[in-house]
Design a protein that fits this description.
Shape: globular
Largest sheet: 7 strands, mixed
Strand order of the largest sheet: 3-2-1-4-18-17-16
Strand content: 15-25%
Length: 470
């Protein structure tokens, strides 16, 4: 049986996983496809805009490859439309042959230790969203009056948070960070930043380029304790047998930094290994004042991995601000099954499955972190999306996709309008993008972001208003 023509596909989300899904759909040879992209926020691109560090403009440039996809005549963007609020699964089934959910991992994992919810203890995900101008986090209370901060975790996000806390005013003002965050960070009293990893240098998840950046900070000295940079026998064996030589180079760089720290600067960034938090301790006012930690030793696991266990020696690190950065986590979506333990939608190669029967749910697919968990970098989503699209196209060709009762493309805008939804189109996004860049150019910055829907709607209305003749 031939695939339906045109194949109507809804994509929920507009971050990298969603955009790569769209790219593969549009590139499928001989496929007559019509795709609608639904984005909860008023701007597209997900974590590229709201998660990638503001001083990493080269990484953000991946959106240049995404822009033409949204301008393709087969594609419509519905921004400021939230699945579960403005649209339900039944709506998608009524108007589309298939829906692919690519909403990412929207919350953070918890450390599971006493004091985690004290004032002054925050998820790194929230802080990242705050300094990136995410509209949901602009009013986040971040106490930068403290003199020391602790970041728990050793991934690239943890390193980003540490670096942002250490940037000088000049470095901050070269970014697309919103003005409120720049002003707060310029006034920050933080002088000591501690990044804690429960395992050793060989197990650190950050990449070598992220580490190198820490050595070039204008206002902070990176310090690593030589004894913590040394490899235990298990880690040395892991590095030796690893086919990935970048691991050996990263360990070598860690040891070089430990042996030759830079000159003292106004701030000190401590990268600590084999140390794990046990408890966040409150001060007299009830907010976090210190982190009680334990030294750890590395042990082999039955599966052949390396785990950390308490070594018995404890340490208290004074800090009035703590960020947990121990991983992202997906959230359930209305109408779809969810694996609460893994934080993903149960699936096989992108096909959503009923966990009770193992049978695919016709027309439902996932891509990205919601599919596989929060692993990999932006580019990892490309082959991941290709796998999902391959399944979708196979199902369409085999006649396994239910025909939507109302496939008319005009029915979707009518439905949203009837529900009072004010959505933004690709043309609206083009205007927003242009206005942000123009404002940035006036300040010598990449862009000045809008951080609220009201401000966006006001700016669009002003841009569309006819100028009076004089």
């Amino acid at each position: 049986m031939s695939s339906p023509r045109p194949l109507r596909v809804a994509i929920i989300g507009s971050g990298p996983a969603a955009m790569y899904t769209l790219e593969h759909l549009l590139a499928e040879p001989g496929l007559d496809v019509s795709a609608d992209v639904f984005e909860r926020l008023f701007t597209p691109y997900g974590l590229v805009r709201a998660g990638v560090a503001p001083d990493h403009q080269k990484i953000k440039a991946v959106t240049r490859a995404f822009e033409p996809l949204l301008h393709d005549p087969r594609v419509r963007l519905f921004a400021s439309v939230e699945y579960g609020r403005d649209l339900a699964l039944d709506d998608l089934r009524r108007h589309y042959h298939a829906a692919c959910f690519a909403t990412g991992a929207q919350t953070d994992r918890r450390m599971g230790i006493p004091g985690e919810d004290l004032p002054g203890s925050l998820p790194a995900t929230a802080f990242v969203a705050w300094y990136n101008g995410h509209p949901d986090y602009c009013t986040l209370a971040v106490d930068l009056e403290q003199e020391a901060a602790v970041i728990v975790g050793m991934g690239n996000v943890a390193i980003d948070v540490a670096r942002i806390l250490c940037l000088t005013p000049d470095e901050l003002r070269r970014t697309d960070m919103p003005a409120y965050a720049i002003e707060a960070l310029e006034a920050s009293r933080i002088r000591e930043v501690h990044v804690l990893g429960r395992r050793g240098p060989a197990q650190a998840a950050f990449t070598t380029p992220e580490l190198k950046e820490l050595t070039t900070l204008e206002g902070a000295t990176l310090r690593i304790r030589p004894e913590e940079a040394a490899l235990d026998p298990l880690s040395a064996a892991e590095v030796e047998r690893s086919a990935d030589r970048t691991l050996a180079r990263k360990v070598q760089l860690i040891q070089e930094i430990a042996a030759s720290p830079g000159p003292p600067r106004s701030r000190t960034l401590h990268l600590r290994f084999c140390i794990a938090p046990l408890e966040l301790l409150p001060g007299p006012g009830g907010a976090v004042a210190a982190v009680r930690c334990t030294r750890t030793r590395l042990v082999a696991t039955p599966s052949g991995g390396i785990a950390a266990e308490p070594a018995g020696e404890e340490e208290v690190i004074p800090a009035g601000l703590v960020f947990r950065s121990v991983g992202y986590r997906g959230l359930p979506l209305p109408g779809l099954p969810f694996d609460d333990r893994l934080g993903v939608v149960p699936n096989r190669a992108g096909r959503v499955i009923d966990p009770a029967t193992g049978a695919p749910l016709p027309g439902c697919y996932v891509a990205g972190w919601l599919k596989r968990g929060p692993t990999g970098v932006i580019g990892t989503n490309k082959p991941d999306a290709a796998e999902t699209v391959r399944c979708l196209v196979e199902d369409a060709a085999a006649g396994r996709l239910p025909a939507p009762p109302e496939p008319d493309p005009g029915a979707v805008p009518d439905l949203l309008a009837a529900r009072g939804v004010r959505w933004l189109t690709c043309a609206d996004w083009q205007r927003i993008d242009r206005l942000e860049r123009e404002a940035g150019a006036r300040e010598g910055r990449p862009r000045v972001k809008f951080t609220s829907l009201d401000a966006v709607l006001a700016a669009l209305e002003q841009a569309e208003a006819p100028t009076s003749a004089h």
